[in-house]
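User: Let's play a game. I give you a shape written as C-alpha cells, and you guess the letters that built it. Ready? Here's round one.
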C-alpha cells in the first residue's frame, strides 16, 4: 500500500513537472487592422457612455425649468452624478470580470441597460422615475461598458497606448457635443419622450456595431481574481495617484454640469445659445482627448495630466470673472480641452503603473471606483453652495478649483515617487 501511494505521488510530480507553464501574453501589435478596429469599437462605446453622461448638463437645465420644476437644482443633479458614479465605480466589478474573459457578456448586458434605461426615461414624469431609469439603469449599463472598452484597447498598444486611448475617449466628447443639440432641436418639435427615444435608437446602432468588432487579445487567467487587489496599494505612485483622482473628480465636473444654467443666469445668455455652450465645451473636449494623448506618448502621461489638471483648476477659479457670452464661449473652449485631457490621459497613467498587464482591469477598476466617489458628491455639494442673483455660482467655482488643484498636488507627489522608483531600478 505504501509503495502504491509512493508511486501515485511520483506520478503526480512527474505530471506536474511535464505540464507546460502558463503561456505569457504575446507582444502587443501596436497597430494593424485588428488593433485599430478595437479603437473604432471603443470610439462608439464612449459615444454612448461618457457621451451620455456629459450631456446631462442639457437635461439638468430642462428638468429644472420644465419637467421637475418643484425639485431643487442640487436634488436634480443627483441623477447625473449617480449615473456618472456608476459608470466609473462599477469598474471595480467589470475590471475583474473582464480579466476572467467575460468581455462579450459585459458588452451585451451594458448595451441592453443603456438602451433600456433611455427608453424608460422617455416614459418618466417624476423624479424617482428619472433617477431609476436615467441615473441607475443607464449608469449600470455604462459601468459594464466603460472599463472593458479601455482595457481591451490598452492590451493592443504599448508605444501608442496614450494616443489610442485618447482617440477612444474623444468619442465621448463627440457624443456629448451631438446629443445636446439633438435633444435641444427635437424636444420642442416632437416632445421630450420621442427626443429621448431618438437618442436611444442612435445608441443601439452604435453599440451593436462595437460589439461586432471588439475582442479580447489576452487569454483569461486560470484562477478567480479578487475584486480588490490589496497589493496594488503597496505601490506608492498608484495609491497617491488614485487619491488624487478622487479630489480632481470632485471638482472637475461641476462646470460641466452647471455651465448651461450659469450662462443663463450669470451671463444672461438666452436659452437656445446656452445649450450650444455645452456643445462647444464638449467639442473642445474631443480635441483635448486626442492631442494631449499624442503629447503623452512623447513627454509622459503623468507630466501631461499634471499640466492639464493645474490648468483646469486655474480656469475654474477664472470662471468667477465671466459675465458675457464671449467669455462663456472662451471658457468652454479652454476648460473643455484641458478637462477632456484629464479624463482621457488618466487611463494611460494607471496602465503605466500596473506591473502585470493581466491585472490591468482590476487596478483600473479600483482607481476608477475612487474617482467615481468624487463625481458622486461633487456637483450635489456644489449645488448646495449656489446662491441667488447673477453671482449665484461663485462659491461652486471656488469649490471646483480648490478640489481640482488639490488633486494636481497629489499627482505631482505620485510623479516624484515614480521617478524615484525608475531611477532606483
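Assistant: Ready! My guess for every position:
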Amino acid at each position: 500500500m505504501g509503495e502504491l501511494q509512493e508511486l501515485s505521488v511520483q506520478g503526480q510530480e512527474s505530471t506536474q513537472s511535464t505540464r507546460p507553464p502558463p503561456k505569457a501574453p504575446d507582444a502587443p501589435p501596436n497597430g494593424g487592422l485588428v488593433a485599430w478596429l478595437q479603437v473604432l469599437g471603443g470610439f462608439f462605446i464612449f459615444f454612448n457612455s461618457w457621451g451620455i453622461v456629459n450631456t446631462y448638463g442639457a437635461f439638468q437645465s430642462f428638468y429644472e425649468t420644465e419637467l421637475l420644476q418643484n425639485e431643487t437644482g442640487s436634488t436634480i443633479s443627483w441623477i447625473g452624478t449617480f449615473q456618472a458614479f456608476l459608470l466609473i465605480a462599477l469598474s471595480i466589478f467589470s475590471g475583474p470580470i473582464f480579466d476572467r474573459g467575460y468581455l462579450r457578456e459585459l458588452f451585451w448586458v451594458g448595451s441592453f441597460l443603456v438602451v433600456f434605461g433611455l427608453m424608460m426615461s422617455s416614459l418618466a414624469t417624476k423624479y424617482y422615475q428619472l433617477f431609476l431609469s436615467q441615473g441607475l439603469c443607464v449608469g449600470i449599463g455604462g459601468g459594464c461598458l466603460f472599463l472593458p472598452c479601455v482595457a481591451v484597447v490598452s492590451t493592443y498598444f504599448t508605444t501608442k497606448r496614450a494616443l489610442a486611448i485618447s482617440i477612444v475617449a474623444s468619442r465621448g466628447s463627440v457624443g456629448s457635443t451631438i446629443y445636446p443639440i439633438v435633444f435641444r432641436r427635437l424636444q420642442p418639435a416632437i416632445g421630450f419622450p420621442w427626443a429621448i427615444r431618438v437618442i436611444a435608437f442612435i445608441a443601439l446602432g452604435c453599440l451593436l456595431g462595437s460589439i461586432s468588432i471588439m475582442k479580447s487579445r489576452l487569454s483569461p487567467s486560470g484562477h478567480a481574481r479578487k475584486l480588490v487587489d490589496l497589493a496594488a496599494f503597496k505601490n506608492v505612485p498608484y495609491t497617491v495617484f488614485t487619491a488624487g483622482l478622487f479630489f480632481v473628480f470632485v471638482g472637475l465636473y461641476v462646470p460641466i454640469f452647471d455651465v448651461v444654467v450659469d450662462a443663463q443666469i450669470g451671463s444672461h445668455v438666452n436659452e437656445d445659445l446656452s445649450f450650444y455652450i455645452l456643445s462647444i465645451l464638449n467639442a473642445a473636449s474631443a480635441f483635448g482627448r486626442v492631442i494631449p494623448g499624442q503629447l503623452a506618448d512623447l513627454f509622459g502621461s503623468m507630466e501631461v495630466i499634471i499640466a492639464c489638471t493645474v490648468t483646469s483648476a486655474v480656469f475654474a477659479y477664472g470662471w468667477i470673472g465671466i459675465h458675457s457670452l464671449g467669455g462663456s464661449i472662451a471658457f468652454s473652449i479652454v476648460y473643455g480641452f484641458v478637462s477632456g485631457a484629464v479624463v482621457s490621459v488618466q487611463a494611460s497613467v494607471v496602465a503605466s503603473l500596473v506591473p502585470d498587464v493581466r491585472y490591468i482591469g482590476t487596478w483600473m477598476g479600483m482607481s476608477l471606483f475612487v474617482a467615481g466617489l468624487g463625481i458622486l458628491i461633487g456637483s450635489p455639494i456644489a449645488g448646495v453652495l449656489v446662491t441667488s442673483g447673477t453671482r449665484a455660482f461663485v462659491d461652486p467655482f471656488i469649490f471646483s478649483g480648490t478640489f481640482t488643484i488639490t488633486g494636481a498636488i497629489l499627482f505631482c507627489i505620485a510623479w516624484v515617487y515614480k521617478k524615484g522608483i525608475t531611477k532606483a531600478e
